[in-house]
## 1
Amino acid sequence: MRPRLPGSLRSRLFLILLAGLLCGQGLAFAIMLLERDQSARAVMLTTLQRDVAVAVALLDRLPAEERAGWLPLLDRPTYRYELGPGAAGTPDLPSRTRMIADEIRTALAPRFSVRFDALPGPTERLQGHVVLADGSGLTIDVRPAMRPVASWLPVALGVQLLVLAACVGLAVRLAVRPLTRFAEAADRLEPGRPATRFAEAEPDEVARAGRAFNALQARIARHLDERVRILAAISHDLQTPITRMRLRVETGAEGPDQDRLLADLDEVEALVREGIAYARSVHGDVEPTARLDLRAFIESLVFDYQDAGRDVTLTALADVTVATRPQALRRILTNLIDNALRYAGRAEIDVRAEEGRLAIAVLDRGPGIPADKLEAVLLPFVRLEESRSRDTGGTGLGLAIADQLAAALGGKLTLSNRPGGGLEAVVTLA
C-alpha cells in the first residue's frame, strides 16, 4: 500500500528533506566506519608483523627458564603468546584469518616456519605454532577484533542529527511562511473591504510575488470602484427622468392606468434609491467613527418601529459602549429588521457581547432561506423566487447593502436558518 503523506506542505517538505539528509548522513557514517575498519586493519597488520618478528626473536634468544616471565610483557589486546603446542584446531582458515596468517608468516620467514590452525568458537580465533631454535614450542594466539567505538561518538551523532533536524525545520519554515502569508492575505481579500498590502520583503521571489499580489488587489479595487461609480451615476441620473415621468402621469387623466403607472414609478424610484445606497455602502468609511451607547441606540431604534405599529422586540441587550459609525450601523439594522418584517411580520433583536466581540442578531420566524443560497443572497440584485419572490417586494439590495456596510465597519454579516424555521442574521463587530 502506498504510504500516505501528511496533508500540509510544511510537513511534507520537512519529512522529505529530513529523510534525504538522514540517508546521506547514514551513508557518510557507514563509509566512515568502513574506512576506519580498513585503516585499523592496515595499521594492525603492520604492527602485528613487526611486533611478532621482534617477540619471537626475543623469546628465541632468552633462556628457557626466563621465557615465561616475559610473556605477559609481550601480550597485546588482539594477540598473545603461549609456551607449548597450543590447542587443537583445523587447518582451514577463513579469509580474514588467512590474511593475518600470511602477515605473520612473512614476518618470521625464513628463520622460522609457522603452522596455523583455526580454533572453533563464537568469534574468530587463530593460532600460529612456531618451533624455536632449542626445539621448544611457541604458540601465537590471535583473536581479531574491532576496536570499540568511542563512548562519545553516539552522543556526537545524536547531537548532529538534532542540529540537522532543527536546520531542516528552520529552512522549511522560512520557505513555507510566505505561502502561509499569501493564503492569509487571499482570505482577507474581499471586494468592498479595505485591502491590506502584502509585505514586499526579501527574498527576491517573495518580494516579486508580493508586488504582483498587491497589484492584483489594486486592479480588483479599481474595477469594483469603477462598476460602483457607474451604478451610482446611472441611478442618480435616472432620478430626473423619473421625476418628469411622474409629473406627467400625475397631471394626466385619472384612472386605473394612472395608478398602475404610478406604482411602477414607485418601484423604479425604490430601485434607484437602493442602487445609490448600495454604491455608497461600498465606501462606508466616509462617515466618521463615534463612541456609541449601544443600549440607548438599539432601544431608540426599536421604539421607532413600535411607535409605527411594527412588531419589533428586544430579547437580550448587552450594556456596552462601542466605537463605530452610527448611521452605517443604523442602516444595517434597519435593512435586517425590514427584511424580517417583510417576510415574517415580526422581528426580534438579541445583542450579545462575547470574547471581546459584539454580536447583534435579528431573528424572525419566516420561511427562511435554502442552505445553498445563504451566501448568494448577500450579492446585489439576488432574490429568491420561491420563498422571497418579487411579489413580496424588495429590490434585492437590502442584504447586499447590510453586508457591505458591515464589512466597512470591520465586521461581518452571517445568515443562518433557525431550528424550527426562520432566519437569524448576525452582525459581528470587533
## 2
Amino acid sequence: MNFKWPFKKKEPYSLGNLPTYTRHQVNEPKKRPVNLKILAGILLFLLVSSSAFAGVAFFENRDQVVASKNKADGEPLKLKTSARNALVIDAQTGQILGSKNPDQKIGIASQSKMLTAYATLQGIDDGKFEWSTPVKITKSSDWSSKDIDTYAHLDIHEGETLTVKELFNAMFLASANDASLALADYVKNKDESQQEFLQRWAKKLDLDDSTWYNAAGQVNEDAFDYEVKSAKKKAENMATPRDLAILAYRILQDYPDIRGYYEKLGLVYSPNGDTTKTKIKLAEGGKYSREIKDKLNNPKGLTFEGMKTGSTPDTGGALTGLIKDKDGHEFITVVSGAGKYTDSFERYQITTDIVNQVEDNFKNEVVNEKSKVPGQGLAKNAWAESGYSHLVAKEKRSYWMKKSEKGKLTFETVKRANTDEVDDDAIVKYVGPNLKADYLKGITASDYKIPLTNQESEIPADENLFLKHWLMFWK
C-alpha cells in the first residue's frame, strides 16, 4: 500500500523576491610563465654568434707571416783541414758555415780568458766598478818571479795596483796570467772561489759543455795558489769549439768595441798610476803584425781583428778569431790542434784557409738598412688609414747559401701586421730567410732575422680605424 506524505515541503528562506547572491567572475587573460629554455636559447645564440663573429674577425685579421716551403741550402760545410777542430760562424747572425769536430771537448788554455773578459765588461755595464778603479795585486796573483816564457805575466808585484782597464788589456792583449787572475779575484763575488765564479758565468752564457778551474787557463797543477785541491793535477779548463764560438759571439754582440784589438801593437801600464814608471809589453796583435801577417798565404786579403790565442802540449796551437773579408763580412773562427803548441804561425794560416773554403763554397745575400726586403709588398695594417703600411729593414743582415743554389735568397713575407706603432724606429715584425741553416745555440730572432720598421710615420694610431677594419672582416 502506498502512502503520500501529508505535509507540503517548505520553500527555502529568501529576502522577499530578491535573487540569491552569486559571485561575478571576470574573465582576465592568464599570465604565461617565462619559458627559460627559450630565453637561454636566445642568449646562447647571441653568445655563439658574437663569439663566432669575433673569432672569424680575429682569424681574418691576425698577423700573418708566410714562409716558403722551398728553402735554399745554407747548411754547414764539412771543412777540410789538418786542424783537429775547426769552426766558422757568421759573426752577425750566428749562422754556422763550416765545421770539423765542433762538439769535441778540448783543453782551451788562454782562450779561457775570454770568460773573465765578458764578466768584467758586464761588471762595468752594471756599475759595480769603473775602468779607472785600482786593483791591488795579491800574493797569489803576483807571478813576477815565474819563468816568463812558460807563464806569461807582467812586471807587477804584490801590493802594487793597476786599474781594471790596465788589467783587462794585459789579459786580453798580452795574455798575462797574473792580470787575468787578479782581475777575476776582483770581479768575482767575495764568497765564491775563482772556480765557482767561472762556472757561474759559464752557466749564464749556456756554455754547457765546458769545465773550469782557474781564470788563467793553466793546467791545475801549474796554477799554484789557484790549484783546485779536489781536482786532478792534470785537470784543465775545457770546452767545445761550439762553446768557444758562443762565448766569442756574446762578447762581440754585447761589446762591439772589442773589434780592433789586434790594431794595438803594444801594452802600456803604470803600476800604482805612476807614469814615471810606465812599462811596455808587446801585444799579441804586435806579434801577429811583425811575425805572421806578411808570411800568410792570404789571397782574399782577410783581416784579423782578434780575439784570443791559446795552446797546450795536448791541444796544440789554437785560436778563437774574429776575421773580416774585403766586403766587410765578419766571421768568428775556432781552430784547435793546429800545429804544435809552440808554433804561432800555423793556427793563423789554418784560420785563413777555412774562411777561404767557406767563401769558395758560399754566396752571400745582403739586405741593407732601410732597404726593402725581397718578396715584401705592402703589408695590410688595420690601424692604417689606407689599410696598408710599407715595411723596410731596420738593420743590415747578411745570409749565406751554397753557390750551387740558383737564383736569389727569398724571405718570409709579411701579409698582415696590425700594429699601432708609428715611430720609424719601432720594430713591427721580424722576418727570416727561407734557408736551411744551423745557428749557434741561444741565437734569437733578433740575432738572425731582419727587423722590419715603418718606412714613414704615416699610420695614425686611431682605434676607430682598427675597429672599422676589424669589424668588417678586413681582408
## 3
Amino acid sequence: MSAGTRVFVARLAGTQVFDPIGDLVGRVRDVVVLVRAKGAPRVVGLVVEVPGRRRVFLPMTRVTSIDAGQVISTGLLNMRRFEQRAMESLVLGELLDRTVRFKDGSGEATVEDLAIARQRNGDWLVDQLFVRRRQAGKSTLGIRRRGATLVVGIDAVTGLAAAEQEQGAARLLEAYEDMRPADLADVLHELGGTRRLEVATALDNERLADVLEELPEDDQVAILSGLDRDRAADVLEAMQPDDAADLLHELPDAQAAQLLELMEPEEAEDVRRLLAYGEDTAGGLMTTEPVILGPETTIATALAQIRKQDLPPALASMVFVVRPPLEVPTGRFLGVAHFQRLLREPPHAAVGSVLETDTEWLTPDAPLGRVTRLLAAYDLLALPVLDEEKRLLGAVSVDDVLDHILPDDWRESDDESIDEAPTSGTEATRG
C-alpha cells in the first residue's frame, strides 16, 4: 500500500477485513479519528465487527492494505470490545452531517463524507471532505433548494471539531441502511446521548420501533423521553404490544399515562391489558398479536399469514385457531396448527382439520418458571395464554422469555467463549 492511498469512509462501511492468510476477520463498521483544533484529524484505527456482533479495535498500524473493496490486516487482533475514548470521534457515527464553515467566508456546508489518506510516514489523516453547500431560501415552487456538492481540503473549513451542535443523520443512516435492527441498535448504543437521539429521531417510526426493541432499557427510556410526545406515542404504536408495555413499565407513571392517552385507542387498549399483569407472568410476557384464525380458514391463507415479513420467527411457527371473535380476548380456543404440518397438507384444506388440540397452555398469572419449563419440555417456540373461559388472550414466545431470564446487561456483555488474544502495541497506538 503506497503513500497517497485515499479512501472515502462512507464507502468503507461494511468492507470485509481479512488476515494475512486470507481468512475473513470481520467487517468495518466505523473509523476512529482524533479531531484536533489545529491540523488534520489523525486516523487511529477501524472499528471492526467480528462474529458474535462484537466490535473490536483494529489499529491503523496493523492495516497493510485498503483496496478493491477489502481491508488486509497483519498480526493478532485484540478481541477486547471496543470502547471509545474521550478524545476520539467516530467518523460515521459522529462526523457525518456535521455543519462546517468555509474559511473564505462563502457560507456553510454539511459533511456528507470524509476521505482518509496515507501519508509518506505511514500515518493516516483526514485530508478531504465531501460536502454539500447550505442553500438558503426556497424555489418558486416552494421546494427547499439543495446546495451544490464539492470536495474540499480539510484546511478549507472550520467547525469539524465542534463538540456539541445540532446535527442531522441522513448520511449516517445511508451508510447503515442495510443493517438489521439489532446491529443498528449496537451502533446507537455506542454513540453519545445527543448524537444517539439525533439519529433515532431521523429514523421512521417502524424502523425506530424495531431498533428500540433491541436496545438496553436505559437507552430506550432516554430516546423515547427525548422525542416529542406525539412522535413517542406513534413509535409505541409501531412496537409489538408486549415490548411497548415493557418500555412503559420503565417510565414514570405520569409519563406512561400521558403517552397511552395519545396512542390510538385500539393500540392503547392492548398495551393497557398487558400492563395489568405482573412483568414476570405469562400475561406480562405475552403478545396480543399472534396469528389468530378461524377453523374454516384455508391452509393457503394460513401460510400467507405467517409469511408476513414483520412477524417474529417464533410467532410464525404456528397459528392459533379459535371461534369468533378473532380479536383478543377471542372466542373459545380450539388448538394450534404448526407450520410444518401446514406445509404437508393440501392448500385448500381448512386449518380446523389439522389442529393439535392437546397443546399445553398458560393462564395469565402463570409464573415465569412455569413458562420456561413448558417451552423447554415440549420444544415449543410459543405457548397460548387462555383465561378461565378458555378464550385466547395472547401468546408467549421464546424470545420474550429469553429477554427476561438473561441478565439485564446481556446486550453489552462480552462472550467469554471468545479468546481475547491481546495484540502487542495496540493500546499504545491510540495515544
## 4
Amino acid sequence: MITHHVRVHRSDEPLPRERQLAWRIAEVAAERVEPTPDVVDMVVNRVIDNAAVATASLGRAPVLAARAQAEAHAPSSGGDGATVFGSPHRTSPEWAAWANGVAVRELDYHDTFLAAEYSHPGDNIPPLVAVAQHVGASGAELVRGIVTGYEIQVDLAKAISLHAHKIDHVAHLGPSAAAGLGTLLGLDAGTIAQAVAQALHTTTATRQSRKGEISTWKAYAPAFAGKAAIEAVDRAMRGQTSPSPVYEGEDGVIAWLLDGPSGAYDVALPARGEPRTAILDTYTKEHSAEYQAQAWIDLARRLGRERPELRDPANVERIVLHTSHHTHHVIGSGAGDPQKYDPGASRETLDHSIPYIVAVALQDGAWHHVASYEPSRAARPDTVALWRKVTTAEDPEWTRRYHASDPAEKAFGGRAEIVLTSGETVTAEIAVADAHPLGARPFARADYVRKFRTLADGVLADAEVERFLDVASRLPDLRPDELAGLTVTPLVDPAASVPATRGIF
C-alpha cells in the first residue's frame, strides 16, 4: 500500500491533478489487476448475500416504491437495460441500481466494514450489476469492478471519518461506486477521476437520516449514491468535468465538511500491481440489525439460555453495556434519542437501538428479521420493562479495540454488567459476532447459501432458489447474456396486491 497525505490547499497553492486524491483513486481503478481466488470467492459470497436480503425485503413499502419509480423508466438507448429484483421489467441502469440498492439496504442485513468510518460495502454491488447488465459486460469484468468498489470504500473508511462531522457514510460510497464502474468499463484514469470527484460532490449529506426517528430514507441513501455514481460516470465519459480539487480545495469537502482548513488525512491505497484484497477485511451479518448489535445479539441469546431468570424484568435492577464510543453514541443511550426507548418507534429506529435489541434477544434467545421487530413484540409489557433498564457506557478499552488496526484486536462488542434485584451481578463479554471471521462460527459459502435459502423461504420457488445460486456461483465465468440471471422472481409479485400510488413518474 502507498500512503497519500491529503490536506487542504489554498486557491493560490495549486495542486496538480495527479496529486489529488480523486486522481489517486482513479489510478487504482484504471489499472487492470486480476483478483486473487479468495477475493473472487468472497465476491460471489457477497452477491449471494445481497440477493438474500433483497429477496426478504421485496414486499416492503420502500422497496415497492423504489421499484415503481424504476419501472417508470424504460431502458435507455445505450444498452439493454438492467433487471430489478422482483420485477418482470428491465429498466434504465441508474434506476435499476436505485431500486435494487433500496432492496439490498432495507433490512440492514448485508455486509459491513467499521474503521474510522463505517460502511456497507455491498452497496457497491447494485450499481455495478445494473451497468454490467446494461452494457453487456462479462462476469469477469463485473467481478473486477466489484473488487475495486470494495477496495476504495474500505480504504476511505479506514482513513477518513465522516460521522465525526455528522456527514453520512454514503459520501464514501459515491466515489467507490464510481471507481468500480470505471474498472468495469475499462475507463482511463482521467475519466474516472472526474467521475469520482462528481460522485463525491453530489453524495455528501448530513447524518440526520440516521438520527432520532429514523425514516425510510435510510434505505434510499446508498441507492441514491449508487444512482448518482452511474450518472457521474456517464457525464465524465461525455467529457464533462467536475469540482477540482474536490477533497483538497479551499472550499472543498475537507475544508468545509470535515476537519476544516487545517485538516489532513493519510489515505493508503494499493500500489501498482498490488492485489486488491480489501473485501476480505469486511464481514456480513447473521442478524438483521446494525452491525454493532451483532455481537450483543449473540451474547444476549447465550445469556438468556444459560440464565433464564435474566429474562424477567422483576429479577433485574439494571443492565449496563460497557462498549465503544461508536456503539454508545450511535445505537446506545449515549445518542440521547428518546426514540430508542419508544415501543412505538419505527423498525428503522429499533434496529439502531441496542437497548431494545439486547432486551428482545435476551428474552427470546433468538433474532428474526421480521418477528423481532413486530409492533406487538416491541410493545410487550415485560419487554418494555426490561428494555428501559438497559443503558450503555463508553469504555476506553473497547473504543481502542474498535479502532485497532490489528485484526486480532479489533472488536465490536463489549462487557455486559447485569445487576440483579437479589444483589448478584452477572458479567459477560464478547469481542466479535459469532459470524465474524474471528468469531465462534465464521461465515463461509455454506452459511451465505443457507442465509439465502432461509430468507427466500416462502418468497421464491425452490427452482428459482436453485437457479439463482447456480448463476451466482458461476459469476466469474458468466457470459454477458447470462448476467441477467442475477435477479430473482418471486412466487407471488408483492406489487400485485398493493394499491399503486402515483408520483410524478
